[in-house]
Amino acid sequence: MISLEQVKDMIQSQLPDAEVWVKDLGGGDHLEAVVVSTAFVGQSRVKQHQMVYVALQAALASEAIHALALKTFTPDAWAEAGQPI
To answer: How many helices (H) and strands (E) does the chain have?
Structure first.
């Protein structure tokens, strides 16, 4: 089983400036992650998600993470959604 903190650390290892929130949706392997990063500026939503999946590749391959609901934002998009960093 992988901890929520480990998932956060894995994402931040690829996206050092990222603000990351990870929540267990059940069973410890069904997770939701919200990631806000300047690295997403100018990238499509698909590319943003691919950037996060690269960071989590080993955990996904080993099925430590079975399912991941992923929400990605640029800092501006996050602010527009009314969310503080």
So the answer is: 4, 3
Task: Tell me the average pLDDT of the chain.
Answer: 94
Average pLDDT estimate for 12-39: 96
Q: Closest by alpha carbon to 24, among 6, 50, 3, 9?
A: 3
d(CA 30, CA 66): 6
CATH number for the domain running over 4-75: 3.30.300.90
Here the tokens at position 54 are 């690269």
- Distance, in Å, from the CA atom of 56 to the CA atom of 31, rounded to the nearest integer, reads 12
